[in-house]
UniProtKB/TrEMBL annotation:
Domain HTH araC/xylS-type intervals: 211-311
Record InterPro entries: AraC-bd_2 (IPR035418), AraC_XylS_family_regulators (IPR050204), Homeodomain-like_sf (IPR009057), HTH_AraC (IPR018060), Tscrpt_reg_AraC-type_HTH (IPR020449)
Keyword Magnesium annotated: no
A molecular-function term among this protein's GO annotations: sequence-specific DNA binding
Gene3D superfamilies: Homeodomain-like (1.10.10.60)
Residues in coiled coil: none
Pfam families xrefs: AraC_binding_2, HTH_18
Record's keyword terms, sorted: DNA-binding, Transcription, Transcription regulation
UniProt KW Transcription regulation keyword: yes
Domain of life from the UniProt record: Bacteria
Protein name: Helix-turn-helix domain-containing protein
Species in which this protein is naturally found: Mesorhizobium denitrificans
């Protein structure tokens, strides 16, 4: 989809821009310096479970408020790369200033304030929370943080975003879906490569052990049965210490492993062109009993796997 305020009726540019941005991301309230003369253009591409957009606009203030969250069916993250000027972001008592050469991660499931005081160009990747939670843990760890996009994997991720945007119009929907998965993988690598992500209110040593255990579990989920002792041995720590790490973080290791399996199954269900049946997806990610998987999935996501797949596919068609 492509939008430009040049197509708006006289005196209705602010309303036009609000509708365009809310359509691309989620409900927001906007404030403009000069609403009637505001200039902006936005282009958005669907990439399977994610989407990529590029927008250029005059200064604007975006607010994500509590009332916007009431009817949201799916929680998402926005990864924003400013090109021309600094952006300001405030969420959950975290105040961030993101300058060109960096990128920012915003949670869509909590109120926030986002603004830029001068004309700006932004690349924005919209990703389901669950896609990142399945790979790098809770968004609480990395939301409202700025990441370096000038070197290493962060720079590669930002470069890939820009290069992808220039070529998407030449790609078919199946190719775009694959590209979307690649962008998510690169984003996760960038997050994992940042030493701040391990800091979670515990000592650096304990945080490092927990992070390493979580990574081992994620990397081995598809290998079938996994016992806590196997995880402890791989991380060079005792079973008792491993269990305490997870209990102190809010759940048992068994609960955490089951959650990761469910998140990976959910991600598979989102893929519009996946040829696998629901039973095959469940088995692939470690559930040997289909009825038990369905029960666990419904308890965690609030609907059956069949309904979830149907909803995801319907959303992609709309």
């Amino acid at each position: 989809m492509e939008y430009s305020t040049l197509a708006a009726e006289a005196g209705k540019r602010g309303a036009y821009w609000t509708e365009a941005v809310c359509s691309a991301y989620f409900p927001l309230t906007m404030q403009f310096k000069a609403e009637d003369t505001f200039n902006g253009r936005l282009k958005n591409w669907e990439l399977g479970i994610t989407s990529l957009s590029h927008l250029e606009s005059d200064a604007v203030h975006y607010s994500r408020r509590q009332n916007h969250l009431v009817e949201e069916m799916e929680n998402s993250l926005l990864i924003t790369i400013p090109e021309w000027n600094e952006v300001s972001f405030l969420q959950s008592n975290r105040d961030a200033r993101c300058v060109p050469g960096h990128f920012l991660i915003e949670r869509g499931d909590a109120p926030y304030e986002f603004s830029y005081g001068s004309a700006n160009s932004l690349w924005v990747l919209k990703v389901p929370n669950s896609a990142l939670r399945a790979r790098v843990g809770s968004p609480d760890r990395f939301a409202a943080l700025c990441f370096n996009a000038q070197q290493g994997v962060g720079a590669y991720f930002a470069d890939k975003i820009r290069a992808t945007g220039r070529r998407l119009d030449e790609m078919t929907p199946p190719v775009r879906e694959v590209v979307g998965q690649q962008l998510i993988d690169l984003l996760c690598l960038t997050i994992q490569d940042d030493p701040r992500i391990m800091a979670s209110g515990m000592t650096s040593v304990r945080a490092a052990h927990l992070f390493r255990a979580e990574q081992f579990i994620r990397q081995n989920l598809a290998k079938g049965s996994m016992q806590p002792q196997e995880v402890a041995d791989a991380c060079g720590i005792s079973l008792r210490y491993l269990q305490r790490l997870f209990t102190d973080s809010g759940r048992s290791i068994y609960e955490w492993i089951r959650e990761q399996r469910l998140l990976m199954c959910d991600e598979e269900l989102r893929r519009n062109r996946s040829p696998q049946s629901i039973a095959e997806i469940a088995y692939r990610w470690g559930f040997s009993d289909h009825s038990q998987f369905s029960k666990n999935y419904r308890h965690y996501f609030g609907r059956s796997p069949t309904q979830a797949r149907s909803d995801y596919r319907e959303r992609l068609r709309s």
